[in-house]
TrEMBL record, chain A:
Lineage of producing organism: Eukaryota, Fungi, Fungi incertae sedis, Zoopagomycota, Kickxellomycotina
Source organism per UniProt: Coemansia brasiliensis
Entry annotated with the keyword Nuclease: no
Pfam families: ECR1_N, KH_6, S1_RRP4
Record's protein name: Exosome complex component rrp4
Family statement: Belongs to the RRP4 family.
Domain of life, per lineage: Eukaryota
SMART domains from the UniProt entry: S1
S1 motif domain ranges (all copies): 69-149
From TrEMBL, chain B:
Domain of life per record: Eukaryota
Record localization: Cytoplasm; Nucleus, Nucleolus
Entry similarity comment: Belongs to the RNase PH family.
Protein name as catalogued: Ribosomal RNA-processing protein 42
Organism phylogeny: Eukaryota, Fungi, Fungi incertae sedis, Zoopagomycota, Kickxellomycotina
Keyword entries, A-Z: Cytoplasm, Exosome
């Protein structure tokens, strides 16, 4: 009997399913996320991998939208300026909100937001702008409320945007990394990633008046190449389904140095690099 | 084409990159992304092809099917030529804004462009050979394209797929018989041979043009723009070049700006230069597709996880 459940567990965990495939008809199991029951059988409602924890059977989908949690660091794109708030696309089921009351004013002035602030909301964030923010709370309908009340949050400049699967970006202590190659990376938990030229924190603080500026700094050829290389590395990790953390990005970057930047996104080289990253990860244990 | 809005900082980053000749993904201004091609994926069609242009097999994806049909001549139509009917449709699965009627405008634009390139002597296809009996019957080639994914540069992908589909098209052979009726007049009759082995290629498909689409960003231009580059584009021009290096169609789109005459001349010259490389690339890709297919007969189009 023991062996029986053992093999069954094996079968269940390595099973890849599509919507509507029967997972089990054993009444001992309970339905988890990504499944539905009909006539005593549990079916998958998504395409993914079957997971079993004790008696709970769930399916982890291969592709999913971002579901937020309070405290998450996200990157979002402003889609609409509404009254006293911005609507932000964060790769979630619905747009997140950024309230006028939860942003910092230029220069870090502390005061209540007045009507004149409301009139010049577009000078802070306009449609299309990318913001670096933290999830503050939920609204009643499940939409996320963001805030940018920190000097490191706010408008993103000096770089390029990469979108990846949100499930590949694990939650960790830090989501803002300065890589050894002189590139800053903001790993939004929602799968939106910002790769930019490194700007020292002291300089950012000195420019507190200009936190909403749209002007890029001067970016040299070599800096541009590093940014492109990092962006391409992230893209290939995403496509080959490797976890995206500062470690894997650095591994991929180092492994990629032998190739030209534009060749990184050809299938053969990308596969080689992903294998190199995976084996280095395995070495680290 | 898509409704992506960039932030001013991103626009500036892309523009300065293009002006410096180093794009956001590391390509130079005149570099293309990878192309994946496959032909004869639709068994009911006379010819079909699927082409995908993009990095790591994710990119603009177009499926083209060609169906040949015999039409009876009606007065008012040209006497002795066949015809080509194009239809391009953007699937709502490609982008959210194609939902409902959102793709209508783009569908019409692409259909018209394809029609202008193909339906006439500039296409290189011998339309006279598509005529079966003058003033009686002719072939109609229905070219139906479905855009399955959009990641920038729809037109070039569409033309690649169409060219590959036309090259793989096989028409049934037609036997024409002339019979003398009782008044001594010659009457022609035709018979379509229903034999999968006895089929002929469309005359003149090797003369079909390829297109190069230029996107002007800042003071310079790029070919095969990515989705983000397209959002930063001020003006766009598609140049169709035939294998004999003649420019056979030009279409400008994008309403933000125009081209200066000097830039336009430069673009036309560059188009011919790129087209030369494109044709040899197309030839190599197409030959590789054919040799792959003869070794692997099972052609279901359903291997979406791999390179089709």
């Amino acid at each position: 009997m023991d062996i029986d459940t053992e093999t069954q567990q094996q079968n269940l965990t390595t099973q890849i399913v599509t919507p509507g495939s029967a997972i089990t008809s054993d009444p001992a199991f309970m339905r988890g996320h990504g499944t539905f029951g009909e006539h005593g059988t549990i079916y998958s409602s998504v395409a993914g991998v079957v997971e079993r924890i004790n008696k709970l059977v769930s399916v982890r989908s291969l592709k999913q939208r971002y579901s937020g949690e309070i405290g998450d660091i996200v990157v979002g794109r402003i889609t609409e300026v509404a009254s006293k708030r911005w609507r932000v696309d964060v790769n979630s089921r619905q747009d997140a909100m950024l309230l006028l009351s939860s942003i910092n004013l230029p220069g870090g002035i502390q005061r209540r937001k007045s009507e004149s602030d409301e009139l010049q909301m577009r000078s802070f964030f306009a449609e299309g702008d990318l913001v670096f923010a933290e999830v503050q709370s939920y609204f009643a309908d499940g939409a996320l409320s963001l805030h940018t009340r920190s000097i490191q949050y706010g408008k993103l400049r000096n770089g390029t945007f990469v979108s990846v699967f949100p499930q590949l970006v694990p939650r960790s202590r830090s989501h803002f990394h300065t890589l050894p190659c002189g590139v800053d990376v903001v790993l939004g938990v929602n799968g939106y990633i910002w790769v930019s030229k490194h700007v020292p924190a002291a300089k950012v603080e000195a420019n507190a008046e200009h936190i909403y500026s749209n002007k890029n700094e001067e970016i040299s050829e070599t800096e541009r190449e590093s940014i492109a290389r990092v962006a391409n590395c992230i893209q290939l990790l995403n496509r080959l389904y490797v976890k995206i953390t500062d470690t894997t990005i650095i591994f991929a970057y180092e492994a990629s140095l032998g190739h030209a930047v534009k060749d990184l996104l050809t299938m053969d080289i990308a596969t080689d690099l992903a294998h190199a990253v995976n084996s280095r990860l395995a070495q680290q244990g | 084409m898509t409704s992506l809005i960039l932030s001013p900082a991103e626009q500036d980053f892309i523009t300065r990159g293009v002006e410096g000749g180093f794009r956001a993904d590391g390509r130079g201004s005149l570099d293309r992304r990878q192309v994946t091609l496959r032909t004869n994926m639709i068994s009911q069609a006379n010819g079909s092809a699927r082409c995908r242009m993009g990095h790591l097999n994710v990119g603009t994806d177009v499926l083209v099917g060609i169906k040949a049909e015999v039409n009876t001549w009606t007065p008012g139509e040209p006497d002795n030529i066949g015809s080509i009917v194009c239809n391009v449709e953007c699937s709502p699965s490609a982008a959210q804004e194609f939902e409902g009627r959102g793709a209508d405008e783009l569908n019409i634009e692409l259909t018209q462009l394809l029609d202008r390139i193909l339906n006439g002597p500039q296409s290189g296809i011998c339309l006279e050979k598509l005529c079966i009996i003058p003033k009686q019957a002719y072939w109609v080639l229905h070219i139906d394209a479905l855009v399955l994914d959009v990641k920038g540069g729809i037109v070039d992908t569409l033309i690649w797929a169409t060219r590959a589909a036309l090259l793989s098209t096989k028409l049934p052979r037609v036997v024409v018989e002339s019979i003398e009726d009782e008044d001594g007049n010659l009457q022609s009759e035709f018979d379509v041979v229903d034999d999968a082995e006895d089929q002929i290629a469309v005359e003149g498909v090797n003369n079909l043009p390829l297109t190069v689409t230029f996107n002007q960003i800042g003071k310079r231009y790029v070919i095969d723009a990515s989705e983000q580059e397209e959002a930063a584009t001020q003006a766009r021009i598609t140049v169709a070049v035939s294998p004999s290096m003649d420019i056979c169609a030009v279409q400008k789109s994008g309403i933000l700006r125009g081209f200066s005459p000097s830039l336009l001349t430069e673009i036309l010259h560059t188009a011919c230069k790129i087209a030369r490389e494109e044709f040899s690339r197309f030839k190599d890709t197409f030959a590789a597709v054919l040799s792959n297919q003869s070794s692997n007969e099972a052609n279901t189009g359903s291997t979406f996880l791999g390179a089709f």
